[in-house]
What does this fold into?
Amino acid sequence: MKRVCIYARVSTDKQSTDRQVEQLREIAKNHEWEVVSEFVDVCSGAKTSRPNFDQMMIDAFSRKFETVMCLELSRIGRNTKHLLDTVEKLNEKRIDLYIHNQQIDTSTPSGKLFFTVASAFSNFERDLIRERVVSGLQNAKKKGKVLGRRSNLTHDVKIQIEQLRKEGIGIKKIAKQFHVAPNTIRKMHLISS
It folds into this structure.
């Protein structure tokens, strides 16, 4: 008998997960699946951290069940990236996902195909975003914009740091005093020596 868990979620405490849970219990009974756990969250699907969802993922990694049952994709997450990350993590542990209303079952070839195609589009979207960011950074550099954080390392600060280093003051203490990274001071020391 297949061991399954039920996941249900509502966005506000004025809503109830009873209908979702009851329907999923009935589906499990009809498939002769054993419901070993039920996880219910009351929070927005846009949040990537949900207490009971997080516990479900921990239990999945411990292989306490073989399939996660849910009524709708939107219950798992509204964000495609989060949904695909979840499926990927479950897949790594050979845990299937059964979404009743969309007739998705990753234990079947068509269910796997659905998520493979969705994952490909997600990767394509990430690559496009990366290209735009790189292009924007290159364009900004061409226009002479200085990228990154402004450094506290002015000419006067460099002189003060060099003096303190000659006096034997530690790098960490100097870094804290002038709000610069210890590595920056080490690099200064290498360049000056």
